[in-house]
């Protein structure tokens, strides 16, 4: 049985990826920050702060996974404006800590092998590694560049996006320089139940659920509604990650998205039509970002031809289930 390690598995995507990998027959180990918890069973849970380089190496030596899904990140664009230093530390330095710890283990294993056999050093520990980047990396996509393919120029428009570009570039350098088995993805907006309301769909659903329950005035506060983004259900996204771990080519980058951009206004309209209340809409300047990119839509032909993946969960289902999730949360509170 192959052993998969999810680094940063206590977040939104982690829970879904754990279930996907269990379904796909992996033995699963998951890292989390010490203050976090991960519900569920049938997997190993380990504490890890990826900024602690020694701890990363110790953990990898202990677990020795066949494949590593690197999810740990400061993943909010909004927070990246507020705390650029932390975002750069976690998303760039943290990722380098993971890659370099694997490299050091490989070096150590091959040196030990050489000592024992007297034959020239050989690569010994080469797990497959999936680095999770973002569709935000493309940034200011020009009208003629939609849908945006992996070869497109990256013009990151915020600190979070810039850190993910760095992660991607460094991953490629580790492949070229050390022959490591690293693939990168650029994941476009993924949505679903349990996502934190820092992100737009969860934010709208939470507000709508609170309004339905009479816990806030009947006004949804919104940011830039004209931005178009490529939304995919998180369960479809983790299925793509598992397929890419199996079939992806080291050194390559794969877009993961639906292939269809939807205006945020359209998302709002759908959520309002699902809600059981009369709701008005108000623009909240706090929710407008310093720089916003008008359209981001993925060209997913590379993912399709590599893995055969296609989206299975329609947008309407995701919105309905996310709203239901928030109805439950609001009832509990
Ligand atoms: O920030 P926290 O305390 O919620 O923990 C997050 C964790 N994380 C870390 N893990 C280890 N060492 C660190 N220094 C560190 N800093 C943060 O990574 C959280 O539990 C996890 C990331 O989960 P989310 O923020 O919920 O991201 P999500 O939506 O699961 O996305 C997974 C990946 C990320 O690389 C995104 O940038 C990309 O997909 O879109």
Descriptive account of the structure:
With 333 residues, the protein is of the alpha/beta class. It has a single domain (3-191, 231-259, 296-312), classed as Rossmann fold (3-Layer(aba) Sandwich), CATH 3.40.50. The chain is built from 10 helices and 13 strands. The chain has helices spanning 12-23, 53-63, 77-82, 84-117, 159-178, 200-212, 234-247, 264-274, 301-307, 315-332; strands at residues 3-7, 27-32, 44-47, 67-70, 128-134, 181-187, 190-191, 219-222, 228-230, 232-233, 253-256, 261-263, 280-283. A 7-stranded parallel β-sheet has the order 3-2-1-4-5-6-11, with helices on both faces. A two-stranded parallel sheet has the order 7-10. It has a two-stranded parallel sheet with strand order 8-13. The radius of gyration is 21 Å and the shape is globular. 44% of the residues are buried.
Compact summary:
With 333 residues, the protein is α/β, with parallel strands linked by helices. It has helices spanning 12-23, 53-63, 77-82, 84-117, 159-178, 200-212, 234-247, 264-274, 301-307, 315-332; strands spanning 3-7, 27-32, 44-47, 67-70, 128-134, 181-187, 190-191, 219-222, 228-230, 232-233, 253-256, 261-263, 280-283. The model has no long low-confidence stretch (mean pLDDT 94).
């Amino acid at each position: 049985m192959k052993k998969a390690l999810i680094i940063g598995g206590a977040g939104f995507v982690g829970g879904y990826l754990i279930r996907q990998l269990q379904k796909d027959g992996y033995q699963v180990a998951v890292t989390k920050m010490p203050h976090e918890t991960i519900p569920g069973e049938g997997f190993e849970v380990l504490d890890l702060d990826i900024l602690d380089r020694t701890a990363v190496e110790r953990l990898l030596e202990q677990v020795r996974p066949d494949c590593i899904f690197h999810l740990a990140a400061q993943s909010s664009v909004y927070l990246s404006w507020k705390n650029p230093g932390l975002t750069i530390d976690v998303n760039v330095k943290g990722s380098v800590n993971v890659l370099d710890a694997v490299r050091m283990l490989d070096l150590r294993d091959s040196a030990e092998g050489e000592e024992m056999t007297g034959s020239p050093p050989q690569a010994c520990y080469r797990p497959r590694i999936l680095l999770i980047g973002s569709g935000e990396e493309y940034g200011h996509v020009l009208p003629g560049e939609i849908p945006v393919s992996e070869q497109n120029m990256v013009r990151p428009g915020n600190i979070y996006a810039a850190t993910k570009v760095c992660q991607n570039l460094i991953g490629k350098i580790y492949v070229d320089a050390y022959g490591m088995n690293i693939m990168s993805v650029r994941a476009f907006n993924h949505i679903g139940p349990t996502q934190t309301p820092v992100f737009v769909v969860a934010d709208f659903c939470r507000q709508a659920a609170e309004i339905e329950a009479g816990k806030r005035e009947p006004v949804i506060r919104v940011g830039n509604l004209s931005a178009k983004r490529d939304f995919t259900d998180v369960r479809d996204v983790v299925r793509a990650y598992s397929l890419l771990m199996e079939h992806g080519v080291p050194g390559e980058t794969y877009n993961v998205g639906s292939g269809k951009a939807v205006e945020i206004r359209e998302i709002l309209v759908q959520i309002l039509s699902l809600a059981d209340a009369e709701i008005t809409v108000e623009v909240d300047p706090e929710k407008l970002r310093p720089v916003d990119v008008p359209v981001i839509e993925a060209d997913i032909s590379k993912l399709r031809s590599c893995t055969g993946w296609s989206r299975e969960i329609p947008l309407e289902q995701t919105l309905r289930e996310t709203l239901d999730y928030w109805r439950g949360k609001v009832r509990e509170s």
